[in-house]
Amino acid sequence: MRIYLVVIDETPESSIALRFAARRAVKTGGGVEILALVPPTEFTAFAGVQATIEEEARLHAEGLVAAAAGALIEESGLKPQITVRRGEGPKVIREMIAANPDIAALVLAAAASGAPGPLVAHFAGADSGALTIPLMIIPGSLDRAAIDRLS
Questions:
Q1: pLDDT of 105-131, one tens digit each?
Q2: pTM (two decimals)
Q3: How many CB atoms are located within 10 Å of the residue 11 CB?
Q4: Nearest Cα to 8, choosing from 98, 114, 89, 104?
Q5: Fewer CB in a 10 Å sphere around the end CB: N or C, the chain?
Q6: Contact call for residues 124 and 137 (beta carbons, < 8 A)
């Protein structure tokens, strides 16, 4: 099955990427995998504080994914695969792509203005030729009607 990989965070463009991916998945008989990244934390000398910081970051990421999955199910009826991983975004994404041959595309959305976002900049930049799957960059300025028309 063709799976569209989408990274969810608190930016408005991540919901644009998710909507586009979900609509493509429904039209192509595929699926969506939602990835929430938990950034690595800096080491603190107090293990209890370190564990609390890491747990809060993980719970926050899980909350983002749960909200995104709920919206996706409600709107399209599509039940996504959900993944929460700790680590640097590009490295985690590459590992997921390598581990799952069903992932057919990485779907990211660029910010509506200014810098496109760190993942878009990374994967569309000097490292763009190294991906083993297509990269879909959705403009962050698209409204729902435009996304629906284009997907």
A1: 999 999 999 999 999 999 998 778 889
A2: 0.83
A3: 15
A4: 89
A5: N
A6: yes
